[in-house]
Amino acid sequence: MRAAVLHETGQDKLEVLDDVEAVGFGPGKVRIRIRATGLCHSDISAMNGVLPQPAPFVPGHEGAGEIIDVGDGVGGLKQGDRVLLCWLPACGICPSCKRGQTELCLAGFLNAGTPNFRRPGGDVFGFAGTGTFTEEVVVDAACAVPIPDDVPFDIAALIGCGVTTGLGAAINTADVEAGSSVAVIGCGGVGISAIQGARLKGAAQIVAVDPVATRREAALRFGATEAVSPDELGDAKQRITAGEGFDYVFEVVGKSATARTAYETTRRGGTLCIVGAGAMDDFLQLNMFELFFDEKRILPSMYGGGDVLTSYERAIALWRAGRIDLEGLITHRVPLAEINDALAQMRTGEALRTCIEI
């Protein structure tokens, strides 16, 4: 079986191998034939060590495909079902699940420490307990979410992470108010989805901020009212808000420097929403006076800040109704053999989302 493997954390290229075996099938598990998977920036963050993940591992967590085998005790799924992969399934019994905060369930993270694959040289892990840069993967049944027949695999894959994360940040976490002003810092696939979420909620001004010109141009097509480079953000703040700051600012980069800029760009009493996944040793500094005096709400958003199954259904309904554009997010398509080209496209900012077709 073919899969793209990162041998050691810190390497910048993957090796596509033919000697990988999906392991762990048994009771409560399903085997999935991957048909399409998106490249998310979190995959690169895991490769370079920003996000913790045992190596060697198969990256990828934004995938969709068909069930080819079902283990004992699995209900509601059968061979041939079309599914997307949920990398953060809810267990339903932990304190977070019982409080209704299923996006904070840790059960899925525990899967990251169990090997999903094997090579002649030893065990191989799957990123975030999945690992979708492969032809087949074995996962807990809760990770396989059925999708309607009219949803293409590439669209379903995007809903499995980036779209749900960005839309949910605007709709669930920040709950953007109609008529408000919004700035989104970082306009890849997740940032563009946050822009679409803010537009759906009725924001009057949506300023997209990104250093890459093609991403700024794309943001305008997806609902941004204006797009600026980072060094133009101060001027936009002055011009649009008379220097007061935006009602909502979304940080979708995952770095303390951009989070600090986002904080300073948020008006007093406004909302800063942290969407980007950053490193454990990258600290955001705030002084106690400004924290008290400015009364800015700082809201982290984990996987869209809501029940992911509900969020999937909402995204599909909005896509069907033409209220959000998901096809347009896919700017590049490559076969698994060209996965390193996809990595280069993301690192340079050339791609919003690259679909790896398997």
Account of the protein in words:
By secondary structure, the chain is an alpha/beta fold. Helix content is 29%, strand content 26%. The chain is built from 12 helices and 19 strands. The model has no long low-confidence stretch (mean pLDDT 96).
Radius of gyration based on Cα positions = 20 Å
Number of strand segments? 19
Mean pLDDT: 96
Q: Outline the low-pLDDT stretches.
A: none
Amino-to-carboxy terminus distance: 11 Å
- How does the major sheet shape up? 7 strands, mixed
- Total number of helices: 12
Shape: globular
Strand percentage lies at 25-35%
Secondary structure category: alpha/beta
Q: Name the helicity range.
A: 25-40%
Key terms:
358 residues; globular; alpha/beta; 7-stranded mixed β-sheet
Structure in a nutshell:
This protein is an alpha/beta fold.
Q: What is the topological layout?
A:
Layout: E1 3-5, E2 15-17, E3 21-22, E4 29-38, H1 41-47, E5 57-58, E6 62-70, E7 82-85, H2 95-98, H3 107-110, E8 117-119, E9 122-126, E10 136-140, E11 144-146, H4 153-159, H5 162-173, E12 181-185, H6 189-200, E13 205-209, H7 213-221, E14 226-228, H8 233-241, E15 246-251, H9 256-265, E16 266-274, H10 288-294, E17 297-300, H11 308-320, E18 330-335, H12 339-348, E19 353-357
Parallel strand pairs: 5-9, 12-13, 12-15, 13-14, 15-16, 16-17, 18-19
Antiparallel strand pairs: 1-2, 3-8, 4-6, 4-10, 4-19, 6-7, 7-11, 8-9
Helix pairs in contact: 5-6, 5-11
